[in-house]
Predict the structure.
Amino acid sequence: MSAQEHAKPATTPEREEFYGRIGKKDLSPLWENLASLVTPQPRPACLPALWKYDDTREFLMEAGSLITAAEAERRVLVMENPGIPGQSQITGSLYSGLQLILPGEIAPSHRHAACALRFVLEGTGAYTAVDGERVSMSPGDFVLTPSWTYHDHGNTGDEPVIWLDGLDVPIVNLFSTSFANRYPNETQPVTRAEGDALALYGTNMLPFGYEVHGLNSPLFAYRYEPSRAALAQLAKRGDPDPSHGFKAQYSNPTTGGAPMPTIGAYLQLLPKGFDGIEYRSTDSTVFVAAEGRGYSMIGGQRFDWTHRDVFVVPSWIPVSHHTPDDEAVLFSFSDRPAQQVLGLWREQA
Ligand code: GTQ
């Protein structure tokens, strides 16, 4: 402990007796807890962790024979951070899980205060409907479901479809601001043609006189191909960032900001032979390998990952990425926009 940190005062019988008495009146002495309450640096309860896709997928398919998407409402295996088990949290502020929808199934329409994102990992033929528009989902697509928008999922194809869900449920519950309800029917009516949002907001044009309203991107699906092409273009222009490789952030085309107020999403290309240097930031981050394989050093611990494996980097723990054998692409998401708007976010290269 440095002289700058608060040293816990000695306990005496008189003090102990006093603490006991005030405890009965719902009071406690700050000086006993100050050091662990107001810490000099982040002390994330969540731990670095990795979920191998092949293992999780096997359990998910097993779940597929145990319960239907309709009965489950959402057939998801939640990734429980081992540092905070039983909380349905992958980090201190975010929820994440793998969702399976089998051919012919519908995950019924509902809405909630929480914002959600999907990153498709396997299969084609599924769609997500948001605000009356259905968008088809293919591997690598990034789809968002803004707060309080009705959404349902369906699989009209002939293969299982699996995606990664990311939600800000722990943030919503921190503030005790959760609301949710089911749509009266299984699916919401389709009121907009497929491709409507993309045509209106995703082509570097906006409807004439468009005024920004709300906090979410009106473009709710970001296709993998153009996102991947942007990384390839970045890679042609110069050297990779020493920590991040060639990295881009998904943006709300009407503001240039994050697609949702609480969750930022990112895509980065790590060229073959990339040997990244350590970086840390206060936003605990969930990564999934969209392509390739490599490993990351997280707080000195090595995590080997391959296509579709999910791993977590907790707040302020140094991370470096390495791709000795193969080029790789990582998708990631975190609460960075929320931290930034609250003036809390920090990074260190
Ligand atoms: O697809 O709407 O993983 O409501 C958790 C809650 C997915 C969803 C989850 C949800 C959803």
Observations:
- Residues 49-348 form a domain with the Jelly Rolls fold (CATH 2.60.120.10).
